[in-house]
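Bit of a strange request maybe. I'm writing a small parser for C-alpha cell strings and I need a real example to test against, not something I typed by hand. Could someone generate the C-alpha cells for this chain?
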Amino acid sequence: MIDGTQQNAGWQQQPKPKEDAAGAYSQAAGYCQDCGRPLNTETVRVIGSSIFCEPCLQARISATPSPAASMPPGSMPAGPGEPSPVIAGLLGMIPGVGAMYNGQFAKGIAHIAVFAVLISLANQVNSIFSLGIFGWWAYMVFDAIHTARARRDGTPLPNMFGLNDIGERLGMGKNSAA
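Reply from user aminoacidic:
Good idea to test on real output. This should exercise your parser:
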C-alpha cells in the first residue's frame, strides 16, 4: 500500500472518493495527465501546469514507465460519475459541450471560440471556411469520445491541439493561485 492506494495486479488503484459529513462524495479536483484517473484534493499532485497522481509522479521522477503504460486499455473498470463515450460523442456535436461534459471547461470555451471564428470567416470572407467548420465539428465529436474513453480506461488523455491545459496557461485553472 502506497499513500492509501491499493495494489491490484501490478497497478495502483486510487481510493474511492471520501464521503463528507453531509453524505456527499468529494468532487474530482483534476485528472492525472498520464493515466487519466480522477483525483481529489488529497490525491492531486500539481507540478507546474501538469496534474499527476502519486504513482505516475513517482514513475516520472524515477524515470520508470508509468502504471498506465503497463495496463492494457479497458482494464480499469468505469467508476460512478465517469464520463460515457457514447454520451460524450452525442454532446460533442454541440460546440464545446462534449469537452465540458468531460470536465474540461476552458477547452470547451476554446472549442466554442474557434467554432464562432470559423462561422464568421465562412460568412464574411469566403465560403471555403465551411470546410473548416465541418472539420472542427468532427474534431470536437472525436475528441469528446476519445477523452471520455481515456478517462474511463485510465489511459493518457488525447491532446491533439494542446488544449487540455489551456485554462492553466491562461490563469483560469484550479492551480492558477499556486
